[in-house]
Design goal:
224 residues, mainly alpha, Arc Repressor Mutant, subunit A, 11 helices
Length: 224
């Protein structure tokens, strides 16, 4: 789903998330499809941030959406649906990683563990070289993937998904002060490795088109 596509899905004349949730609970599966399409890119980025790579992301997305669908009756409207959904997505990704390799919970990682973290070992870009926006974005994606997991998850939710500090803390189950610290350190590592021009590259970790359709259709088939 492109940025323009996401914007189209949240036009004022379209139902808000809470209304779509109510329709799903009333038996309208098509409303769940719209919810997935609306949040696909954020869910994709959140899961990839935990996994640290693109492999298995679509499978975990489907698992997360199914878990959310089954728990939808317990969703309380005083929380934002997007934040609630991303928390489920993060937990699904952590569960997938835990089954492969033991994972230290993000809220137990001491800040001193990354006090001397080195920037990702990527080649600096010659400022005189003209490169396309997608190449810049790919370099940034690689640098984000190379960040320590605790930094990567915070950076993706704050910078790419645009979540606030409190929502990010809620999604990851960590303190607000920890979010602020890890976010600033992640930005510094990326700037040191790539420079300000690349860190500001647009369309990082896009998710749309065929992949967006494949995930939503797969979830609806499993629900059915």
């Amino acid at each position: 789903m492109s940025a323009a596509g996401e914007a189209a899905l949240v036009r004022p004349e379209l139902p808000a998330d809470d209304e779509l949730v109510a329709r799903v609970l009333a038996g309208d599966a098509s409303s769940y499809q719209l919810l997935m399409q609306r949040h696909n890119r954020r869910v994709y980025r959140a899961i990839r941030a935990v996994l640290g790579e693109d492999r298995d992301v679509e499978d975990v997305m489907q698992d997360a959406y199914l878990s959310a669908y089954r728990a939808l009756g317990g969703f309380e409207a005083r929380a934002r649906f997007g934040t609630w959904l991303i928390r489920i997505a993060v937990n699904s990704a952590i569960d997938r990683r835990r089954r492969a390799v033991p994972v230290v919970p993000l809220d137990t990682v001491p800040e001193t563990a990354f006090a001397r973290a080195e920037p990702p070992p990527l080649e600096l870009v010659d400022p005189e070289r003209r490169v396309g926006a997608r190449e810049l974005a790919l370099r940034l994606e690689a640098a984000i993937d190379a960040l320590p997991e605790a930094f990567r998850a915070v950076y993706v939710l704050r910078e790419l998904d645009g979540l606030g500090t409190f929502d990010t803390a809620a999604c990851l189950g960590i303190e607000v002060t920890t979010v602020r610290t890890r976010f600033h350190r992640a930005r510094r590592l990326l700037r040191d490795a790539l420079g300000e021009e690349i860190v500001a590259a647009a369309e990082v970790m896009p998710f749309g088109g065929e992949r967006c359709a494949r995930v939503t259709e797969g979830v609806l088939a499993r629900i059915a």
